[in-house]
Design a protein that fits this description.
Distance between the termini: 21 Å
Radius of gyration: 17 Å
Strand order of the largest sheet: 1-2-3-4-5-6-7-8
Number of strands: 8
Largest sheet: 8 strands, parallel, barrel
Number of domains: 1
Bound molecules: 2-phosphoglycolic acid
CATH superfamily: Aldolase class I
Order of helices and strands: EHEHEHEHHEHHEHHEHEHH
Structural class: alpha/beta
């Protein structure tokens, strides 16, 4: 079975203007190695800057391999959905990945589970890489509900997704209390949550899906803690918020996500 390729995504959230988004995309694209070193990198700018960022990435060296991602979309092909953006409109701009179920959309915007499931299926059916975000609140963690919350969110989001669609899924475990707070799950706690998510995929699908699905960690990842988190056996990279707004930080995090064989080589 082929090893899982590490994935590092930069979620810019509702930050940057046109000028600073182009500047940041250029710095990231120029800084990424041409061969991407076996790590798949992605950036998720605000939708309004996708076009400018897409053009900028194409002009850079390593940026040509950087996946352009969307933070949001609506799971219908076209029509009367004022204010929304379809997957084909995103594809037209060169978008290859999308976030679904991010905690800010679940808890701040109030996106319901049913919409998250529709978005997950639509993204996977369209061939987009779908970064499905799950994770518990502090209250849920303190009442030992982490695994139950992850399981419920994953079962609900993947309700209509058959195993044949799962090549395109990346699960991001992002404890809500760790997002944007400077508090990170310890590598051991994150590893334990990831291991249980992988076991869940084995129960929902089969061992091959469990083994091949990338599960990444998000929540206050920075260059200082990335290598230790990414060296855990079930952590296949990260989803980076605040630290992705600094090109040097983001590039350092990308290079901390070296492919697993190299990590094993380095430790043996
Ligand atoms: P953070 O955000 O790195 O700023 O904690 C992570 C995320 O929201 O994906």
């Amino acid at each position: 079975m082929s090893p899982r390729q590490p994935f590092v995504g930069g979620n810019w959230k509702m930050n940057t203007d046109r000028r600073s988004s182009v500047h940041l995309a250029r710095a990231v694209g120029d800084g990424l190695p041409d061969d991407a070193s076996g790590v798949q990198c992605a950036i998720f700018p605000p939708s309004i800057h996708l076009n400018a960022v897409s053009e900028t990435l194409r002009e850079t060296g390593g940026g040509a391999d950087c996946v352009l991602g969307a933070q949001n979309f609506y799971p219908e092909p076209e029509g009367a959905f004022t204010g929304e953006i379809s997957i084909s409109q995103l594809r037209d701009l060169g978008v290859g990945a999308a976030l679904v179920g991010h905690s800010e959309r679940r808890h701040v915007i109030g996106e319901p589970e049913e919409l998250i499931a529709r978005k997950t299926t639509a993204a996977l059916e369209s061939g987009l890489l779908c970064v499905l975000c799950v994770g518990e609140t502090l209250e849920q963690r303190e009442s030992s509900k982490t695994d139950a919350v992850n399981e419920a969110q994953i079962r609900s989001a993947l309700e209509h997704a058959s195993a044949s669609l799962l090549d395109g899924i990346i699960i991001a475990y992002e404890p809500v209390w760790a997002i944007g707070t400077g508090r990170t799950a310890s590598p051991a706690d994150a590893q334990s949550a990831h291991e249980r998510i992988r076991a869940l995929l084995g129960r929902m699908y089969d061992a091959s899906v469990a083994e091949s699905t990338r599960i990444i960690y998000g929540g206050s990842v920075k260059s200082a803690n990335a290598a230790e988190l990414f060296s855990q056996p079930d952590i296949d990279g990260g989803l980076i918020g605040g630290a992705s707004l600094d090109a040097d930080e983001f590039l350092a995090i990308c290079s901390a996500a070296r492919p697993r064989q190299e990590l094993q080589g380095a430790s043996s």
